[in-house]
Design a protein that fits this description.
Structural class: alpha+beta
Strand order of the largest sheet: 3-10-9-4-5-8-7-6
Number of helices: 21
Strand content: 5-15%
Bound molecules: adenosine-5'-triphosphate, magnesium ion
CATH architecture of one domain: 2-Layer Sandwich
Distance between the termini: 120 Å
Largest sheet: 8 strands, mixed
CATH superfamily of one domain: Beta Polymerase, domain 2
Number of strands: 12
Length: 470
């Protein structure tokens, strides 16, 4: 019986079918091995009848790309999270393709193709709203990358990763073993070089290679570890975990724009609560939201932390119900505590509530962009959500009607509800606004206090011109 034939099929804990090695066959078994690298293992190939990936569960766009590459004579594999999720019986978020075709060769094959990325050049093939990411196999490389410029920074960070190689090379540059499984479209088999199938079975996230070196090459891998752990319910392998406690500070060197992208995946991927808790556990949250981390550190139990958790819970719930979520609301919630504290300081210094909120919002928003970027299209509505908060307290005259008409009213009102839920804003105020929206005009008019009568100034009597004038 060949290696593949010795494997049994079991149902994973999530309902997918994962082939595993039979107990007692120690060859290739790397479950307890912390450090694996090129040449350390023979690949294991699992033929189609022995794994659960069916073409029916791969998107038609991904299949088109896979087949077109294959028909053009290139190697063509489904890779990364798509393979991982299908083996776990989960629906993949997107599909990534690996090939030995160079980016230019990929572009020549697809009209609907764009090459992107400098640090890591790859092809995006678009079918309607579906984008398939096609990456050419990479090899590890020495510090000269052929263009005469350095591929690593002084502290080991990969600056460029564009030296092409074979599938066997490509395996080792991937982050986690469970992300390094390849589904071959030419015979529908799954190829595993790194023990990824065993780790899928035991629910283990294990970096390929030496953890410290791999985090130094790309510190964002620490955030990815947390993201996958929260999303898949996996445990980070102790070796991969230990290094995170030491190396979090390397995130300071990551460009703010890349951190913004990563934050979107961390908090808008449907598992924001678990992700937030793990980020705090590994002390990584402070590199993403330093001001929030500082503000929360004074208040471990009180409403500020409950507020963030409730906001993230809501976000997860909305995503589960296919409702839209916006980064503006997310950032407004995550930065609310430091914004609120800053506004309070300004109030004490004599600013009006509206003024204090506006100034605090501007300051917070610009200080946050030193850690992670926040595109204007999100920071503007974020500040509007904040700016409307003190305006909810004005319930007289025309003010509530004007607020109701504000384009950001709905988001700001939802924000007020959250604040009230955790006891940071008065519950009566939230109720008042809930009623105010649902009642008819006459009833509304009764709710609103009349505007204070403007005191009429008595017209000043002109002083008669004195003799000396003129
Ligand atoms: P998901 O798409 O569900 O978020 P994914 O594993 O597919 O998860 P992607 O960001 O789409 O993640 O990346 C696709 C694959 O590319 C990964 O599975 C991994 O093999 C590889 N990869 C992505 N980012 C890195 C990285 N920073 N370092 C090493 N390998 C990476
Ligand atoms: Mg993916």
């Amino acid at each position: 019986m060949n290696g593949a034939g010795r494997r049994a099929l079991i149902a994973s804990r999530r309902g997918g079918i994962i082939p595993i090695r039979e107990q007692g066959t120690s060859e290739n078994n790397v479950t307890n091995q912390g450090d694996i690298g090129p040449g350390s293992l023979q690949p294991v190939t699992i033929p189609r009848p022995e794994h659960a990936i069916s073409r029916a569960s791969i998107s038609s766009s991904a299949l088109k790309v896979l087949y077109r590459l294959k028909e053009a004579g290139f190697q063509s594999f489904l890779v990364g999270g798509g393979v991982r999720d299908l083996l776990l019986g989960r629906e993949p978020k997107d599909f990534d393709v690996g090939t030995d075709a160079t980016p230019d060769e990929v572009r020549a094959l697809f009209r609907n193709c764009r090459l992107i990325g400098r640090r890591f050049r790859l092809a995006h093939v678009r079918y309607g709203r579906d984008v398939i990411e096609v990456a050419t196999f990479r090899a590890r490389h020495d510090d000269e990358d052929g263009e005469g410029s350095r591929a690593h920074s002084d502290d080991g960070r990969i600056l460029r990763d564009n030296v092409y190689g074979s599938l066997e090379d490509d395996v080792w540059r991937r982050d986690f073993t469970v992300n390094a499984l390849y589904y071959d479209i030419s015979d529908f088999s799954v190829v595993d070089y790194v023990g990824g199938l065993d780790d899928l079975k035991t629910g283990t996230l294990r970096l390929i290679g030496d953890p410290e070196q791999r985090y130094r090459e790309d510190p964002v891998r620490m955030l990815r570890a947390v993201r996958f752990a929260a999303k898949l319910g996996f445990l980070i392998h102790p070796d991969s975990e230990a290094a995170i406690h030491e190396l979090g500070h390397l995130l300071n060197d990551i460009p703010p724009a890349r951190l913004f992208e990563e934050i979107m995946k961390l908090f808008l991927g449907g598992c924001a609560v678990g992700t937030f808790e793990l980020l705090r556990h590994y002390n990584l949250f402070r590199y993403l939201f330093p001001m929030t981390d500082e503000a929360l550190s004074h208040e471990e139990q009180g409403f500020p932390i409950t507020f963030v958790l409730r906001a993230l819970e809501n976000t997860d719930l909305r995503l589960a119900e296919d409702k839209p979520v916006t980064p503006a609301f997310l950032y407004a919630a995550l930065l609310w505590e430091p914004a609120r504290l800053r506004a309070n300081e300004l109030l004490e210094e004599g600013a009006s509530p509206v003024e204090a909120m506006q100034i605090a919002g501007n300051q917070l928003s610009s200080e946050q962009t030193q850690a992670t970027s926040l595109p204007k299209r999100f920071s503007m509505p974020m500040r509007e959500i904040w700016n409307l908060q003190p305006r909810f307290e004005r319930k007289r005259g025309k003010a509530p009607y004007r607020l109701l008409e504000h384009p950001r009213f709905r988001a700001a009102y939802d924000f007020l509800l959250l604040r009230a839920e955790v006891g940071e804003a008065p519950a009566e105020l939230a109720r008042w606004w809930t009623d105010f929206q649902t009642l008819n005009e006459a009833e509304r008019d009764r709710m609103v206090d009349p505007a204070p009568k403007k005191r009429r100034r008595r017209p000043r009597r002109r002083r008669p011109a004195t003799q000396t004038d003129g």
